[in-house]
Design brief:
- There is one protein chain.
- With about 300 residues, the protein is α/β, with parallel strands linked by helices.
- About 40% of the residues lie in helices and about 20% in strands.
- It has one domain: Rossmann fold.
- It contains 12 helices and 7 strands.
Length: about 300
Amino acid sequence: MTTTSTKGSNGHDGHNGHNGHKGHPERPAPTRKEHGKQGATGFFQLLKERRTRDALYHDANYWDARASARDGLARSMWPSNVFNELWDERQRELLVRTLGDVRDRRVVDVGCGTGRMTRFFANFPGGAAKEVVGVDFSPSTVESARAETERSTVPNANRARYVVGDVVAGLDDLGPGTFDDAIVLGCLSVACRDLESLERAMANVARLVRKGGRVLILEPIHRSPLLRRVLDLGLEDWIGVANRAGLALRTADRMGFFPVRLVCSVRDLPRAIVGPIFRAGELLLDAAPYLAPLSDYKLLLFNRA
């Protein structure tokens, strides 16, 4: 299994999962003082990262540096931890609404980052998973996930374990067909540079799941240069790739009203201000399907045929 350094860029829930850093010079991890400066100009930092995303997001050292320099959820999400907490709550709500019960199921969290969602599935409301395996291409991030899980006081933390792996190169070391559910949150949109690499990654994820099992993808799927991460493909392209990997679409949903995300994710503001604005945006997305193009993340739930 390839051992390189998750979560994708700026709020992606899963690191890249792909060893794409070869040929890039090592970057020293930014200090916390430097990180503070980045937070002060968060929007401009976001724009700068977008301009260099193809190289930056495939560099394991970039994700290692983020995991070392930032605190809390910001290590694998956006600079604002106030916004990250609201995003995390919304994601959990959406996952519970979509998946229902994962009791006694084996779950793989592809692009697990620091283990945020891996631990959540080990304590899933209504019925925890029997085992959850988190996989990420960043060794430092996997170590952080292990350390956080060891320190965790939540029940069933021992049901979560972590490995280093590359979703594009292949994950067969985890055992093809041995999982009931595969969860991919914000990973493939930065792990994959083009249609060919998405085809490989999707097939690798699908191969992990038994026939009849589920694959849930929650990704920032965009063609817009501002909103897309690395992969420049539309929603129909993603569904077509999944179909060719033997996955049948069961349901679709969305989250993350991106006008709110663009404004509120780059700098910590009081929760009393951000909370009502964030929730209003999510209520709009739930109530008005025609606003789906304004959602940052698209949820696609598939069954393996």
